[in-house]
Amino acid sequence: MGLFMILFTLIGGITLSAQSSINGTFSRKAGTIETTFLTFLTGTMFLTIFIFFFGNGNVIALLEVPKWQLSAAFLGTMYLLLTVMAVPRIGVIATNIAGIAGQLVIGVVIDHFGWFNSLIIELDIKRVFALLFMIISLYFIYKGNKRSSEESKA
């Protein structure tokens, strides 16, 4: 089952990069906030259909959870909005690497301290090196994009 989850997540990453690129281009015509709105409107319609046919949970429970847990919806919206803003300016790969680096940094902090009732996983040298390499890759990708952009303008 773990291998399938990795494969599904890989496919999710592919769709996220494609969405980022399309949304970045679309936002030049429609606007950043409007593009983000369309994405969430479409997602709402799609998920409503999925809940109707496949849902087995309790939608009313959304009103019963601790209020701080509702912040996750805001955080997801902010992620998409910031991604739509970044792609036309720094490119898809730099945007995605920056997003992944941010996820890794906060993920290490959350794991280390066990925030949000997560499993506590101590920060070790392997994790530090993984973060360091991700930041180095972001630097090189961003510099390469910047150089390519400057060369194409010349």
TrEMBL record:
The chain crosses the membrane at residues 36-56, 68-87, 93-113, 125-142. Keywords: Membrane, Transmembrane, Transmembrane helix. GO terms for cellular component: plasma membrane. PANTHER family: INNER MEMBRANE PROTEIN YDCZ. The lineage of its organism: Bacteria, Bacillati, Bacillota, Bacilli, Bacillales. The keyword Ribosomal protein does not apply. This is DMT family transporter. The keyword DNA damage does not apply. Signal peptide: none annotated.
